[in-house]
């Protein structure tokens, strides 16, 4: 699904990613952990095609296709989904209407017709039931006055609707209460399948009490310095990141 080879990237004159190698197969959930400032958000931004970052070496491939020349929207249409760290507020546009537009834009970009209204309603009903999202929430203005948990619910709903091949959830280091963690975790657990892959980026081990990753990677100073199974997350919880810093 995703194959990253010797990826170097940075911003202006600053090198941030210094040779990342990562293979993610369909059906897998990978967790990327690491201390603040390691490059976790940069990695997700570079995979999604954020043009503020410059790739200086290496490659990112999705199902064998090099993504280098593709804009963020094109990557999204190929099935890359990045949760929004800073969601925009759109007063007067409901969660549902925003989603309808996003789905139809995506179909248009692929040369498909708009989704028929009844099919759209069915999809919205199906996904919102799966994630236990109530109708009242669907009619609220996008992100306006949303709590941290509601923003997460909206992100997970978007992920469910768009059915990405590769979903990257970059959990900001702050402000995620236990409710929000549960929402993200339930969503991931319900949406994972043999046909998609999920990368969960998190500073804290807590989230991994609810999502069991197949692989855990530690990113430090722009490199993956350790990879393992879920037990690595427990080791990090117990020992913190200092031993990682000392070894590297
Ligand atoms: P993490 O998500 O692991 O906390 P980031 O990817 O946000 O790490 O940041 C990695 C490093 O790159 C940090 O030193 C950060 O200050 C720097 N960095 C990230 N984005 C930018 C940017 N837009 N401009 C300048 N420096 C940046
Ligand atoms: Mg950070
Ligand atoms: Mg970050």
Can you give a write-up of this model?
It comes from Flavobacterium arsenatis. The structure is a single chain. The protein has 9 helices and 12 strands. β1 (2-11) and β2 (14-24) form a beta hairpin. The model has no long low-confidence stretch (mean pLDDT 90). The protein has one domain (2-247): 3-Layer(aba) Sandwich (Rossmann fold), CATH 3.40.50. α3 (95-109) runs parallel beside α6 (148-162) and α6 (148-162) runs parallel beside α7. The strands form 3 sheets. A 6-stranded mixed beta sheet has the order 6-9-10-3-11-12, with helices on both faces. It has a 4-stranded antiparallel beta sheet with strand order 2-1-4-5, covered by helices on one side. It has a two-stranded antiparallel sheet with strand order 7-8. It is an alpha/beta fold. Adenosine-5'-diphosphate is lined by residues 11, 14, 16, 34, 36-42, 52.
Indicate the CATH topology. Answer: Rossmann fold
CATH homologous group name: P-loop containing nucleotide triphosphate hydrolases
Order of helices and strands: EEEHEEHEEHHHEHEHEEEHH
Helical run tally: 9
List the ligand species: adenosine-5'-diphosphate, magnesium ion
Structurally, the number of domains stands at 1
Q: Which strand order does the major sheet show?
A: 6-9-10-3-11-12
Number of strands: 12
What CATH architecture would you give? 3-Layer(aba) Sandwich
Pairing-aware structural class of the strands and helices? alpha/beta
Shape field = globular
Rg from alpha-carbon coordinates:
18 Å
Report the mean per-residue pLDDT as an integer.
Answer: 90
Major β-sheet annotation: 6 strands, mixed
């Amino acid at each position: 699904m995703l194959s990253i080879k010797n990826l170097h990237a940075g911003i202006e004159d600053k090198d941030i990613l210094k040779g990342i190698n990562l293979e993610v197969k369909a059906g897998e959930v990978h967790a990327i952990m690491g201390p603040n400032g390691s490059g976790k958000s940069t990695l997700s931004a570079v995979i999604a095609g954020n043009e503020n970052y410059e790739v200086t070496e290496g490659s990112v491939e999705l199902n064998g296709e090099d993504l280098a020349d593709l804009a963020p929207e094109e990557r999204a249409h190929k099935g890359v989904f990045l949760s929004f760290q800073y969601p925009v507020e759109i007063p007067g546009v409901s969660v549902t209407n925003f989603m309808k537009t996003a789905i139809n834009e995506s179909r248009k970009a692929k040369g498909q017709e708009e989704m028929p209204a009844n099919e759209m309603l069915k999809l919205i009903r199906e996904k919102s039931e799966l994630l236990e999202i109530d109708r009242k929430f669907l009619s609220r203005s996008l992100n306006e006055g949303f709590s941290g948990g509601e923003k997460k619910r909206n992100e997970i709903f978007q992920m469910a609707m768009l059915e990405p091949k590769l979903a990257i959830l970059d959990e900001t280091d702050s402000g995620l209460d236990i409710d929000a963690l549960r929402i993200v975790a339930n969503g991931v657990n319900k949406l994972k399948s043999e046909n998609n892959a999920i990368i969960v980026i998190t500073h804290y081990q807590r989230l991994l009490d609810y999502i069991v990753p197949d692989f855990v990677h530690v990113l430090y100073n722009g490199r993956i310095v350790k990879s393992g199974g879920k037990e690595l997350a427990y080791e990090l919880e117990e020992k913190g990141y200092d031993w990682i810093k000392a070894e590297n």
